[in-house]
Design goal:
Blueprint lengths: L1 E5 L3 H13 L3 E5 L2 H10 L4 E4 L8 H10 L6 E5 L4 H9 L4 E4 L4 H15 L6 E2 L5 E3 L4 E2 L2 E2 L2 H12 L7 H8 L8 H15 L4 E4 L3 E4 L2
Parallel strand pairs: 1-2, 1-3, 3-4, 4-5
Antiparallel strand pairs: 6-7, 7-8, 8-9, 10-11
Helix pairs in contact: 6-8
């Protein structure tokens, strides 16, 4: 997604930009409402990630203004303002989601996943055979964030659906030659995946490997 981040805390600003880029998003950052407003009217964004207490134009007023001008881009408030009154105002002016500070990055990823699902913003979400959604970019499946390597294994099995994939094939394709895991480590990754997506989802084909069936 192309995301506009408005955050005037410079440390948090850099952390969020680095994280969002790392999980595959295109991010433009700004530190005040005036600059954000200019960018919103100038460029297309898939999502607005907005602090509220920023210079010139606060986040609530910014969203109210762009909604009055017909801009319907999903807006997520990220703020320490967390009273019921604040929540009500945030939604009343046109906000779509509200993340209370402090928060961890896993919570942010889960909220973004939900926004992507509701507004159909991510064509990369893969639907598992049982209907769960899996995003290989954010590594989130059905609201749960996988470890990066677990996500890569799941993605590889889904790209080879209905075919048994050997442990050696997984190692050859997902690890560097000097960083190949033991068979026990690979089995642990598979076990962890099964705990998240369901034991029956990944079938062990004796003598051949692992398979996800459509």
């Amino acid at each position: 997604m192309k995301i506009l981040l408005m955050e005037d805390d410079l440390v948090l600003h850099e952390i969020l930009i680095e994280h969002l880029i790392e999980i595959g998003h295109d991010v433009i950052g700004c530190e005040d409402g005036q600059e954000a407003e200019t960018l919103i009217f100038k460029e297309h964004f898939d999502l607005l990630l907005l602090d509220v207490n920023v210079p010139y134009i606060d986040g609530f007023s910014l969203v109210e203004s762009i909604r009055d001008n017909g801009i319907k881009t999903p807006a997520v408030f990220v703020t320490s303002l967390n009273t019921t009154k604040d929540l009500k105002r945030g939604y009343a002016v046109g906000g779509d989601e509200y993340i209370k500070k402090p928060f961890d990055l896993d919570e942010l990823d889960a909220r973004l996943m939900q926004i992507q699902k509701v507004f159909n913003l991510n064509d990369d979400v893969i639907i598992l055979p049982d209907g769960k959604g899996f995003d290989p970019v954010t590594h989130i499946v059905n609201g749960t964030k996988l470890r990066k390597k677990e996500s890569e294994i799941l993605h590889y099995l889904l790209r080879n659906i209905n075919r048994a994939v050997s442990a050696q094939e997984l190692m050859d394709n997902l690890w560097a030659y000097d960083d190949v895991p033991s068979n026990a480590t690979l089995r642990t990754y598979i076990k962890n995946l099964r705990q998240v997506i369901g034991k029956e989802m990944i079938v062990t084909v004796h003598g051949e490997g692992f398979k996800i069936e459509a």
